[in-house]
Amino acid sequence: MSFSGFSKFALGSLLVALGVDAGTPASCTNTQISCQNTTAVTDSCCFNAPGGQLLLTQFWDTDPVTGPVDSWTLHGLWPDNCDGTYDANCDSTRAYTDIPGILTAAGKTSLLRYMQTYWKDNQGDDESFWEHEWSKHGTCINTIKPSCYTGYTSKEELVDYFEVAVQLFKGLDTYKALAAAGITPSTSKTYTSAKIQAALKAATGHTVTLGCSNGTLKEVWYHFNVKGSVPAGEFIATEPDGVKSTCATSGVKYLPKSGTKTSPSSPTGL
């Protein structure tokens, strides 16, 4: 996979080029940006629709703890429609199981090891969680349908889905971005949503969606439009497709995890 990192984060506007090396996705030229097209696009393999806004979503789990204590974990990569709605479970014939086996067979053991650290289920069943994310969201990304590949081999679109999600996650180090603004996990401190938003907007150039439960920060969603296909296109940071944040304006808790810190392969980017 070729991947241009998130070096533009600090400058505000994020543009990320992603390419995958498992198979041959559709070759796209003169592509338009999803959710921003001015004319109709007929090539469904080169234009994400109706799920034109891609969300990279992250968890901060403290009870029980998942992942390293100084890193958020991956939730999923979701294709939202441009109006904020979304489709789900779009192709039951591709509700694949044995994801570790599929990734191993594709030679993606390093990807699998990374997921085993950073893409965690809070009930301890990572494989079922990955299957859920793929079946519910991955099957709804139209630019990774099997018909979009030249020389398609079975299940390679699943490999692309997880590889793209992980590469995006590696460039979105939420823990580091918040810490740079003085927002660190604490049992006594609280923060305003505005301060949290400002810290993450300074990193990406765009508003994110904040998710809270019982007054505690639990999720961050990053929003992208895509120029071209998901496996081979450009991810462009954008504003959320509607107001979805669930955190109070003030008094937001950001509780610490307990456990070990990240290994040298921790997310990097912001």
Automatic annotation (TrEMBL):
Pfam families: Ribonuclease_T2
Keyword Nuclease among UniProt keywords: yes
Keyword Lipid biosynthesis: no
Gene Ontology molecular functions: hydrolase activity; ribonuclease T2 activity; RNA binding
EC number: 4.6.1.19
Chain ranges passing through the membrane: none
SUPFAM superfamilies: Ribonuclease Rh-like
GO biological process: RNA catabolic process
Signal sequence annotation: 1-22
Enzyme's top EC category: lyase
Active site: 75, 133, 137
GO annotations of cellular component type: extracellular region
Sorted UniProt keywords: Disulfide bond, Endonuclease, Glycoprotein, Hydrolase, Lyase, Nuclease, Signal
Gene3D superfamilies (alphabetical): Ribonuclease T2-like
Family: Belongs to the RNase T2 family.
Matches recorded under PANTHER family: RIBONUCLEASE T2 (PTHR11240:SF79)
Protein name: ribonuclease T2
Protein's organism: Morchella esculenta
Gene name for this UniProt entry: RNMes28
